[in-house]
């Protein structure tokens, strides 16, 4: 377990350095530990180390881990994978956040299925900032229309936008793609929406994401190690 703690500290140090470099306060940047494919015991170890926000991509894996870790009541589970309509209930019942909304139908089901005794489900709309056909997410010109419908759903709380840029080490390309998300958030705020979240930045691009204004990093392999099956 020493390695997982060291890795988490190394990631926190990268975040601190990247924030300092651009004059940001590290407290503005939340770290989501993306635990998909890794065992609940790893999550529990990080929990004891103080980490509270964990990200999962697969509904059944999320549900299993929620059950195993039920005694860790203040874990904040974020669902960050593709979501089909027949799986929305399990996510509405178990997650605190969903980052991957790009269809009204899924948002409506989550709102209807969110248990009344829980706070509203926090939502980010996923935007396809790279334009790659393989990526899910809204086109930039679809974001305002969906946001204005999602804010009306009673059991959801629209928090912001999420993106996965193209896999690149070119910081110019990354900066350009992250800036699409930043500009869209500003447009939504100009229309009166209260948003506080830019979910962007992963193991390989978190410095660029912080420079662009990320408030929530989704970091997997830099903490847990390489995954043995792909996402
Ligand atoms: C797997 C995954 C991550 C974490 O990726 P790493 O490169 O391992 O940090 C972040 N966001 C999403 C949507 C993912 O599916």
Automatic annotation (TrEMBL):
Function: Pyridoxal 5'-phosphate (PLP)-binding protein, which is involved in PLP homeostasis.
GO molecular function annotations of the record: pyridoxal phosphate binding
Residue positions where N6-(pyridoxal phosphate)lysine is found in the record: 36
Alphabetized PANTHER family for the sequence: PROLINE SYNTHETASE CO-TRANSCRIBED BACTERIAL HOMOLOG PROTEIN, PYRIDOXAL PHOSPHATE HOMEOSTASIS PROTEIN
Cofactor requirement: pyridoxal 5'-phosphate
Sorted UniProt keywords: Pyridoxal phosphate
Domain Alanine racemase N-terminal: 11-227
SUPFAM superfamilies per UniProt: PLP-binding barrel (SSF51419)
Sequence similarity: Belongs to the pyridoxal phosphate-binding protein YggS/PROSC family.
HAMAP family on file: PLP_homeostasis
Pfam families: Ala_racemase_N
Name of the protein in question: Pyridoxal phosphate homeostasis protein
Gene3D superfamilies documented for this protein: Alanine racemase
């Amino acid at each position: 377990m020493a390695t997982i703690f060291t890795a988490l500290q190394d990631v926190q140090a990268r975040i601190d350095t990247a924030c300092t470099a651009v004059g940001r306060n590290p407290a503005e940047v939340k770290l989501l530990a993306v635990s998909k494919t890794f065992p609940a015991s790893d999550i529990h170890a990080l929990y004891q180390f103080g980490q509270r926000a964990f990200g999962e991509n697969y509904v059944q894996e999320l549900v299993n881990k929620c059950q195993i870790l039920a005694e860790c009541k203040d874990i904040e589970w974020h669902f960050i994978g593709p979501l089909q309509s027949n799986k929305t209930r399990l996510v509405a019942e178990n997650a605190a956040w969903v980052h991957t909304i790009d269809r009204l139908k899924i948002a409506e089901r989550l709102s209807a299925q969110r248990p009344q005794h829980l706070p509203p489900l926090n939502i980010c709309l996923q935007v396809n900032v790279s334009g790659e056909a393989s990526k899910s997410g809204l086109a930039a010109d679809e974001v305002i229309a969906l946001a204005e419908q999602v804010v009306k759903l009673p059991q959801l709380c629209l928090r912001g936008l999420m993106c996965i840029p193209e896999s690149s080490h070119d910081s110019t390309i990354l900066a350009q793609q992250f800036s699409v998300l930043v500009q869209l958030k500003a447009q939504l705020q100009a229309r009166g929406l209260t948003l506080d979240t830019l979910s962007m930045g992963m193991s390989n691009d978190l410095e660029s994401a912080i420079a662009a204004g990320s408030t929530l990093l989704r970091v997997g392999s830099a903490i847990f190690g390489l995954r043995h099956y792909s996402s």
